[in-house]
Design brief:
- This protein has 258 residues and is of the alpha/beta class.
- The protein has a single domain, classed as Rossmann fold (3-Layer(aba) Sandwich).
- It is 40% helix and 16% strand.
- The chain contains 7 helices and 7 strands; from the N terminus they run βαβαβαβαβαβααβ.
- A 7-stranded parallel β-sheet has the order 3-2-1-4-5-6-7, sandwiched between helices.
- The radius of gyration is 18 Å and the shape is globular.
Length: 258
């Protein structure tokens, strides 16, 4: 797909993997909506990149009206052909199904994690698909692409990751079905499963994070960068024959039992 004149939405676009995606798409000439709940970071990124290139729209992926508004803004900027779901959560953490006193995992916490990572991703998929379907087809009758974010925890979840792994496993399972559902409309669906990437979610200096997590990555022996994630999103958008697949982006890392 030629990215000239194309517009996109990136949920979670104000930081982390989403910011890396916004930067790579803008670099390619795409007009991008930064869809995020963080006004401070979203507005700062818009100011840095220029509102003519990247527009911040306060967005809650679990609120369909909020998300639809962001998609509508993206569609007003150009031919709406790309949606990347890279949002996350700041709350929550590791919690085993039973704690040391054999108390069960809090069900509301489990539901919240599923909502953010799986339900929110499905909401992006369904609403973005409806908007992309209205875009005129181009070469090979293609209209656009949706890129969702899973995790290698979908395949090798570590102790305490039951909710996160279940949510990300759901995102992986969604990918092929969505690609098949949308195939007749010329809309592709791809999934990226990142390994250990350094983002603000780590809440520590990169040097400390690298010493703790980077050495476990076989090659290259370091954590991933959001820029590398964003580059893959761009490459997926440009390559029409990538469809219905989940790509691990992890330096050959496989999570082990701690």
């Amino acid at each position: 797909m030629d990215l000239t004149g194309v517009s996109a939405i990136v949920t979670g676009g104000a930081g982390g993997l989403g910011e890396g995606t916004v930067r790579r798409l803008v670099e390619a000439g795409v007009k991008v909506v930064i869809a995020d709940l963080s006004d401070e970071h979203g507005k700062a990124l818009e100011a840095e990149l220029g509102a003519e290139n990247a527009r911040f729209v306060s967005t809650n992926v679990l609120d369909s009206d909020s998300l639809q508004n962001a998609i509508d803004v993206a569609a007003s900027l150009g031919a709406f052909r790309i949606a990347a779901a890279a949002h996350g959560a700041t709350e929550g953490g590791l919690s085993r199904i039973l704690d040391r006193e054999c108390n069960p995992y809090d069900l509301d916490s489990f539901r919240r994690t599923i909502d953010i990572y799986l339900t929110g991703t499905f909401n992006v998929t369904r609403l973005a698909a409806a908007a992309i379907a209205k875009t005129e087809p181009i070469a090979s009758d293609q209209r656009g692409v949706i890129v969702n974010t899973a995790s290698i925890a979908a395949f090798e979840g570590q102790p305490g990751q039951s909710a996160y792994s279940a949510a990300k496993g759901g995102v992986v399972g969604l990918g092929l079905v969505a690609a098949r559902d949308l195939s007749k409309l010329g809309i592709r669906v791809m999934t990226i499963a990142p390994g250990t990437f350094f983002t603000p979610a780590f809440r520590m200096e990169r040097e400390d994070a690298e010493a703790r997590f980077g050495t476990a990555v076989p090659n290259p022996r370091r954590m991933g960068s959001p820029d590398e994630y964003g580059l893959l999103v761009r490459q997926i958008a440009e390559n029409d024959y990538l469809n219905g697949e989940c790509i691990r982006l992890d330096g050959a890392l496989r999570f082990a039992m701690k």
